[in-house]
Amino acid sequence: MDFTFTEEQQAVVETAKALFADVAPDGVPSPALTPGAVAEDFDRALWSRLADADLLGLLVGAEHDGVGLDAIALCLVLRESAKVLARVPLLENSAAVWAVQTYGGDDVKRRVLPRAVRGELVLTVAATGRTGHDPAELAVTARRDGGAWLFDGLHTAVPWAQNADLVVIPAHTPDGRTILALVPRDHDGLTLAEQYSTSGERLAELRLEGVRVAASDVLEADDAWDRLRDLLTTGACALALGLGEGVLRMTAEYTGKREQFGHPVATFQAVAVQAADRYIDLRAMEVTLWQAAWRVSTGADGALPTTADVSVAKIWASDGVRRVVQTAQHLHGGFGADTDYPLHRYHAWAKQLELSLGPAAAHEETLGDLLATHTLG
What we know:
four-stranded mixed β-sheet; four-stranded antiparallel β-sheet; 10 strands; globular
């Protein structure tokens, strides 16, 4: 198994590190002290810099002004973004434009992709369904109406919906297929209700009542939603890894300076053992992430479908990031709860990532179902 990154992927990492170096994790009010959202919009200045550095077109082909790389490159950038809690819809936007690039017709590609690469058009994805527990594709119904489609239903906890221009919405048809609709935020029949995440960012409940979408803005490929969901989940794992690495580094610096009995607490065996356990968590999160990202990027065959590798990565990411931030809180003592210190923000973001796109238990169930229905030779 070779996890060596290509020169192009390594160049993307260096670019991302330079861009995120100036991002302050506490650049908005604390979610612990703010009723409602910590900010009305995402970091537009950072978004513009990402566009200028061609990082918004990682998964878009050169024919549409993109870079033409893969999910591994995206995960490398997401990993760096999470270390500083970058407030941008990079995962959702990148996954949505990938779906358009892969499954859209020439007209929708021409209208969406170049503008998205330039940062002029922002996309997000409704991926949690009606409750966050049921399959997202069952939350909305779709039926043909002449040369268009009509959509009815409800999606909850849609990230960045109030600030995105287009929302990719999965829906099921009367014959049991899942399709994806590209719906403008201000479209007739689409209403948004305010919600907030654990991290204090704005979410939205999307209600669709007779939303009419042209056939050219609907992606009908049978595997479009499954592959988009796998990409989103893998990206969430990359965010969890980056966040966990940032927290462990912060903890190492703190315990290396904090002294008790005349010695840094990092030299105490109980502290060192706990930090070592969390380091092992991060390495497990990393190896399962790259396995999933490789399967998502290449479509390579395996004993189980790609979703199995994605589920394994999400199990480790959900449980691992929770353990990392809990240990960090413990080793920081009172500073871990101090709202003037950024660790509490990482804890809030970690909880959001742990539960986003399904907690560990949901992916354990998915993995169990796959193992039960596939013969391993």
